[in-house]
Amino acid sequence: MTADNPSKPRASNNGDVKRVALVLGSGGARGYAHIGALQVLAERGYEVVAVAGTSMGAVIGGLYAAGKLDEYADWVLTLSQRDVRRLLDPVLPGPGLLKLERVIGRVSEMLEGALIEELPIPFTAVAADVGAQREVWFTSGPVDVAIRASVAIPGVVTPIMVNGRLLVDGGVMNPVPMEPVIGVDADFTLAVSLSGPKERDRLRNSPAKESAAERPPNEWLDRFTRSAAGVWENEFVASILSRFSRDAEPEPTHPAFEPPPPGLGLTDVATMSLDTMSALINRFRLAAQPPDVLVEVPGDAARTLDFHRAHELIDLGRRLTVRALDHFEAGLIEADDPS
Which of 39, 105, 159, 224 is the most exposed, fewest CB within 10 Å of its CB? Predict the structure, then answer.
């Protein structure tokens, strides 16, 4: 249903549009914003009648459909950065750096063996089969297994095998999976994208043209500072800037490019690459199948592994959802006003 489609939902005589099909996107720790979105929907009396989710969207969506989201939220709100580091289960060597067994173990305890087909709210978790190069929709079986398959960020979280399929993060192919909720008996669809335009530097669709020749630092320091904001720690950005002075002559190097910045790890490169890819895929897929309400969380609101920032990201999700629903509800009232 699009904005100019006559089938777009309209308010009933008492102004109520209550049944919502919910789509929760991928984006690592930014997915805490999904919790805030669900809180706002509940406070406004909306009934979620179906949920589809990818990656962190599958985590939140699965727990919500099973009635366990409050327990999960209470847990993550207590996590410090040190707690998160202990939970991530680093492993070398292997097809990923993190196993997530402790995290998934805690989620499994909350879910208590729940099966997707028995959930009170229909739920679909989306993963990607890298062998067959196709999406996989989990609509039955253990919820925790479906979640684990959907969160396997390539190069970061180890993939898993399920029934002969090698599965990775669903965001590789479908960052905001609208398709599973098509045809659901709902008054409108609401999607939460975690790859929205950056707050400090609006996302541009056209390619940037650049010279491979080395340029003086004073020509690119401002651009680096803008692009790095929200992606790396302040200390990391400062370490790069300290290597150069706006008034200093660049040191001669051969070849002309600089080596990767110190402190840049495999997880940084992998998650930033996936975020970049997902943002592009997201634009095309949402253009083809737009939701009635789109909540866009800026892609630089948090780094993928910033799972210690639950408070601020839940609050961000609340604020952005309030804004989107206010706009949507105002449109319904205006459309139903006979004057």
Answer: 105
**Beta strand pairing status for 123-129 and 47-54?**
parallel
**Which residue out of 26, 55, 150, 278 is catalytically annotated?**
55
Give me the catalytic one of 129, 144, 169, 292. Answer: 169
Active site residue 187: no
Residue written as token pair 């097809």? 95
| Tokens at 331, concatenated | 């449109």
Q: Band of the pLDDT at 277, cuts 50, 70, 90? A: confident
Q: Measured in Å, how far apart are the chain's first and last C-alpha atoms? A: 25
Is residue 38 scored above 60 in pLDDT? yes
Return the pLDDT at 202.
Answer: 46
pLDDT value of position 267:
67
Listed residue (87, 83, 60) closest to 71, CA to CA? 60
**CB of 138 within 8 A of CB of 62?**
no
Q: How far is CA 240 from CA 228, 234, 237, 258, 301, in A?
A: 10, 10, 5, 11, 21
- 144, 176, 137, 134: which is closest to 21 by C-alpha? 176
pLDDT tens digit string along 197-251? Answer: 875 444 445 566 665 656 666 565 566 555 555 544 444 445 544 555 444 454 5
